[in-house]
Write a structure and sequence with these properties.
The chain has 137 residues and is mainly alpha-helical. The protein contains 5 helices and no strands.
């Protein structure tokens, strides 16, 4: 049963990908269809049109095998020896710097969101509990 649920959730993720691809095909915008699909998925999750539980296991499964998706691009470098020259070194440096920037920005945004959620939770907890001033009367 779990395998079928994961397959169905992966199918939902592919539907978003294909919708994004169709949008790119019909509009001709230069943003990749996968990115458009990702934005659509984020919007539907943000506005609670679908629940996270509908894609959580499927996304987790895909993330577990994410490194395997990079093997074809890594092997393809062999076909382009110029990427192993100075220009290739610049490319590797750019990838490393952009990866570090992405990790740092993602971490900072995550910390900000977590801090804000904790503050909101504490504010609702304070409102929900009776004040001690009324007990001293």
């Amino acid at each position: 049963m779990r395998v079928l649920r994961i397959m169905a959730q992966i199918a939902i993720l592919f539907v978003y990908y294909y919708i994004g691809t169709l949008i790119v095909d019909f509009t001709g915008i230069i943003i990749p269809g996968s990115i458009i699909g990702l934005v659509l998925l984020w919007l539907t999750l943000y506005f609670k049109l679908i629940k996270v539980e509908f894609i959580q296991d499927g996304a987790g499964f895909l993330l577990a095998f994410l490194t395997l998706f990079f093997i074809p691009s890594t092997v393809a470098v062999v076909n382009y020896p110029e990427l192993l020259s100075i220009a290739g070194a610049y490319l590797v440096i750019a990838v490393i710097v952009s990866t570090i920037c992405t990790i740092v920005i993602t971490g900072k945004v995550s910390q900000f969101i977590e801090k804000r959620e904790n503050q909101e939770k504490e504010a609702t907890d304070v409102v929900a509990t009776p004040s001690n001033a009324s007990h001293h009367r």
